[in-house]
Amino acid sequence: MKKFIGVFIAISMVAMASFFSLAYSQRQSQELADSPKVIARSRNNHDGQPFAPPHGNAKPGANGITYHGGPLLGVVGGNPVTAYYIWYGNWSGNSAVTILTDFIQNIAPSAYYNINTTYYNASNAHVVNSVSYGGSTTDNYSRGTSLSDSGVQGVVSDAITSGRLPNNPSGVYFVLTSADVNESSGFCTQYCGWHTYGTIAGSNIKYSFVGNPARCISSCAAQSVGPNGNAGADGMASIIAHELEEAVTDPNINAWYQGRYQENADKCAWTFGSTYSVNGALANMHLGNRDYLIQQNWVNALGGYCAKSY
Prior knowledge:
alpha/beta
């Protein structure tokens, strides 16, 4: 059995009125019948946060998304979800550290994260509207300024095996990279972030790569300014939310996704609903003491729909 299974969906803007999309999946390799512009190809290990704004559409089914029997994180009666940050690269003096820490500390309970409570496991236990922040560690370029997929896992492994972060199978570990760091399998050209899982220190560990949109602002951020005054960090908040939702409802890539391997957040990628203006930027929700522009998530109820609250 392969250690990693994943899904990648990437969508980029070709022109203002047309989009060219790429979707990667290890499950199969075929052209997708629902759109001549979408192609599925083999990929090793990860789902991806698409780059450049597409639109989220429902697929056929009761609520537009299907359960495939795998486990979920943070369900009623189970262990709570804990998020961890690994600050990779140079974050000295960058307000992103405060902005993104505030974000993860306030993402749940919230009306936004409550959308995930519409997802159930095989025992009919639903996801709880709760996420704890388990802390962070730094990694000062241990693998240079170009990370491979395996290098991302190595960064997570180092943090756990060194004891800098705990070994928590109910956790989601986010590798957050500074703007000078690339992910060589396609950051900025094929994806903005992804999540997967792997065996680390004897445990099934869920982790995510989230690149800094400041490296490619037109590809990985919805706007060139941010409501918190840091376009890269504000863009990362949206990608973190996207990957967290998917890691919770499809941690082993065998739970909630739809026909062509769209996970819940993929179905609403780069859609934001109603917005308001803050500090010369757009925002669509207030969490804690800050405003953010966060991609909507798919509500698994009432036929299914994209929303920013439930």
